[in-house]
Amino acid sequence: MMKFKEECKTVAAIMRRLYKQNLTTSSGGNVSMKNSDGFVFITASRTDKSSIKWKDIIVIDSTGKNMTPDLKPSMETVMHLEIYKTRPDVFAIVHAHPVYASTFAVAGIQPQSSFTGESRFILGEIVMTNYKLMGSEELAHECAKSLEKSETAILKNHGAVCIGNSIFEAYNRMEVLEMTCKIHFNTLLINCCNVLSEKEVKKIDDMK
Question: Is 76 annotated as catalytic?
Answer without folding.
Answer: yes
